[in-house]
Write a structure and sequence with these properties.
alpha/beta; TIM Barrel; eight-stranded parallel β-sheet; globular
């Protein structure tokens, strides 16, 4: 096996001062003898750019310890044996395998019913996605199926998808509404997401996708629909149904002027903003997201140079969604452009039934490397700590650092680069979310 590049001696020294923390009370979980990827910052916590964009914080023969779902210490070699363990502590010998933070999937559309196999075949035969949308397909087909499903059926589908994501290493996941379109239907979806969140084995971040597509009855009354969608923000916030609001800003869908009232309503309600931006065309949505101080700008395949500079200045993560580019067939975002501009990059699955039906973050990582030009280590950073920042959780998860959630994945390999190389391989072994094992 080729030798992997090692961090510099200075970097190891700085990290050693962070990781040799054995003066803790007790631990109820210890994983040792690992190729440990800490994703620890070398200084203050912030989205990774520059050289840090590919720094996974490797500790050979490392260990991580947790208590009550929170990381209490990390270290190397046999120093974990100095820890005091609880009577029922779990001690795992990783046998040299990779141990890393759980994946953070910062962009999904898991709350839906129905499938769109026919549309997939039609697109592969040459149909344009926006043309499919105009004929009542695309999002509208999923809207119909979602509305026809009962609450319990929709909840069961969502819970199954969350379990699949967790089994594949995701420990934090964003779930959008968006397949109701009408405000009342969107509120229904958000309440179902809340029910799933309450029982989920992993951390769920709900988003109100207020402006996804224009309902048929509002084709001639766009402004009236936008007003209704915006008016629902206050109820969403009052019921605690979402952490953020979102809109699909694209030619022929919604324009930045349509989104401005939504931005104001979100601010007034104390909700974050994220945007589907410049996916198929450059409509200025990426720069708009930066001006509006969005939490993230997602898709961004056709973002302009001005848009990239705006994101870099504001340190706003761009969330790349290679699964969508792969299935729809448009040119994927060029990650090297974003990295060169100093933009923090995250990667997400964008799981949805029409344009990105991929399951699990390992596939998203592999596609981000193969299609977008990230290195394997850059893709891992993008799928963990930078994705955590894209969800406003950069201080909570995404790294194996003291006081973070004990969200931990054991891989079935001793080389993390296999996540990019072994597309489709069953590489995820044991998953701990908040210190608890996720059951398959």
């Amino acid at each position: 096996m080729p030798r992997r590049a090692s961090p510099s001696r200075a970097a190891v020294s700085r990290r050693s001062r962070e990781i040799e923390q054995v003066g803790v009370s007790q631990a109820d979980l210890v994983i040792h003898h690992a190729r440990l990827l800490t994703l620890a910052p070398l200084s203050e916590e912030r989205p990774r750019t520059g050289a840090a964009a590919g720094d996974v914080g490797t500790v050979e023969n490392g260990w991580v310890a947790a208590r009550d779902g929170v990381i209490v210490a990390t270290g190397r070699d046999g120093t974990w044996e100095h820890l005091e363990l609880t009577a029922d502590a779990t001690v795992v010998d990783a046998a040299g395998a990779v141990v890393m933070p759980g994946f953070v999937d910062a962009h999904t559309h898991l709350c839906y019913a129905g499938q769109r196999w026919d549309e997939f075949v039609t697109r592969k035969s040459g149909a344009d996605y926006l043309a499919v949308l105009e004929r009542g397909g695309g999002i509208h087909a999923t809207v119909r199926a979602t509305r026809e499903a009962s609450d319990d059926a929709l909840l069961a589908l969502l819970e199954r998808r969350l379990a699949e994501a967790a089994r594949l290493g995701t420990t934090t996941i964003e779930v959008k509404s968006g397949y109701g379109l009408e405000p009342e239907a969107e509120l229904r979806s958000l309440r179902i997401i809340a029910r799933a969140k309450a029982n989920a084995p992993i951390d769920v971040s709900p988003t109100y996708l207020a402006l996804h597509a224009l309902p048929a009855r509002h084709v001639a009354a766009r402004r009236a629909f936008v007003r209704e969608a915006v008016a629902a923000v206050a109820m969403v916030a009052s019921e605690g149904l979402a952490e953020a609001v979102d809109a699909f800003v694209e030619r022929g869908v919604f324009e930045t002027d349509d989104v401005r009232p939504l931005v104001k309503a979100a601010r007034d309600a104390g909700l974050a903003l994220t945007l589907h931006a410049d996916q198929l065309n450059d409509v200025g949505a990426t720069a708009f997201a930066a001006r509006m101080k969005a939490r993230s700008a997602d898709h961004v395949a056709n973002a302009s140079a001005d848009g990239l500079r705006a994101l870099a200045r504001a340190a706003i993560p761009a969330v790349l969604l290679p699964g969508s580019a792969f299935f729809v067939g448009y040119t994927p975002p060029d990650a090297r452009r974003f990295l060169a501009a100093g933009v923090p990059l995250a990667v997400a699955s964008d799981h949805n039934p029409g344009t990105s039906p991929i399951v699990g973050m390992p596939s998203a990582i592999a596609l981000a490397v193969a299609l977008c030009g990230l290195s394997p280590h850059e893709a891992i950073v993008a799928a963990t700590i930078n994705a955590a920042h894209a969800l406003g959780r950069g201080e909570r998860t995404g790294a194996l650092v003291k006081s973070r959630r004990a969200d931990i994945v054991l891989l079935r390999t001793d080389d993390e680069r296999e996540l990019a190389y072994g597309l489709g391989a069953p590489l995820v072994g044991t998953v701990f979310a908040g210190g608890r094992p996720v059951r398959s």
